[in-house]
Write a structure and sequence with these properties.
Length: about 100
């Protein structure tokens, strides 16, 4: 899917009523995505439906359904793009966690 890089923040993120787990790191190749995928798999083994949202080039290249390439977005639209991709994952997948 080609992502609209000029989407403004709307506030619709307020509708998302679930737990968000951010996996962050300051260096490349330290296991952020692997950790997030392992968390998603663990939640699903517990009977909880979850969604994975990727925020970088590798997630996009690997074909994850909900992803944005942050480096390609004009700074004015980063908040809107993050809001939109998280909202879409929530609205379309209806995770329970």
């Amino acid at each position: 899917m080609f992502y609209n890089l000029r989407i403004s923040f709307t506030g619709k993120i307020e509708e998302v009523s679930l737990i968000n787990v951010a996996v962050l790191g300051t260096d490349a190749a330290i296991g952020k995505r692997t950790t997030a995928i392992m968390l998603q798999e663990a939640f699903e083994k517990l009977g909880k439906k979850s969604s994975f949202v990727a925020m970088g080039q590798t997630g996009w290249m690997q074909g994850f359904r909900y992803t944005i390439v942050m480096d390609s977005i004009i700074n004015d639209f980063v908040a809107g793009a993050i809001e939109d991709v998280i909202w879409r994952a929530w609205a379309e997948e209806r995770p329970t966690l």
